[in-house]
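Bench notes, afternoon.
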Amino acid sequence: MSVMTRDFFLYLSKNKALNRAAQNWGGNIASGKIVGGLDFPSSVKFIKELNDYGLSVTVDHLGEFVTNKAVAIERAEECIRTIETIAAQKLDSQVSLKLTSLGLDIDDQLVYDHMTNILDTAEKHQIMVTIDMEDEQRCQKTLDIFKDFKSRYNYISTVVQAYLYRTEEDIKELSSYKPFLRLVKGAYKESPTVAFPNKSDVDKNYKKIIKMHMLSGSYAAIATHDDAMIEYTKALAKEHNISKDQFEFQMLYGMRSQTQRELVKEGYKMRVYVPYGDDWYGYFMRRLAERPANIAFVLKGMTKK
């Protein structure tokens, strides 16, 4: 049933007609509930509310797989403006981005130019920029770009996905960079030739990579709504005397808000992933596909707001 649910929502995420419809009429439904707003300025008030509860934030301008150079340029400029606004308003927020939004599928040099401008701004304001991981076919290029920039910039991090077979080796290879890594299970539909097809195997590998990265001494972001993984992380930190300053939990905006606040009360760093923009539909469907329990979390969050 979970596989059927996942495939159903992944199918919906790629439906262009529904995506267009969502952009036309769904903004008010989504804003302040599962996305911050349709643009960054309208998201600021929600970020401030989260900060007031002691919650940190990372923001993401939705939209990926850009094939138009002009759009890629606009996305890069938007990212720079967002960093400058975060700094000017003293928000407790980082920035997340996807390389395909900056033109990864258009031209490598375009991506390098955009990332250089973005990271120059991020270094100036000391604001972390996380390169989100996308599907497996773009994984190696994403990691190569990350390693290149990590050798020259401090305020850059990336993401690894537990459902890929390759991830354990990727973490070993990245260890020399002392990276800030966000650890996730993974949300894309992948072939069983590259990814674990069974949830139990993904969960097992997720625990493995959490332990590997946390014991390495590098900063870890455990991005999950799964109580079992949260408790595993807490127990691991206690067993190995890992400081709460060495890791954080991350969850999606509009999901498990009470749990997020409880983690803050327990003294843990808790960061909320706040997407914004009118291209929210595909993101929303992938989050529902990622874990069936997210459906209940979303419905609960939307009815409370």
